[in-house]
Amino acid sequence: MTPETHPRPRVEGEREQEILHATLDVLAEVGYDRLTMDAVAAAAKASKATLYRRWSSKSALVIDAVLAQKGPTTAPDTGSLREDLLQMHCGAGGVTDERAMSVLASVITAVNIDPEFATAFRRDFIGPKVAAGRAVFERARERGEIGDDVDLDLIAPALAGMVLHRTHLLGEPPSKATIAALIDQVVLPACHATHTSAQPQDKDHA
Question: From the UniProt annotation, which stretches of this protein bind DNA (predicted)?
Answer without folding.
Answer: 36-55
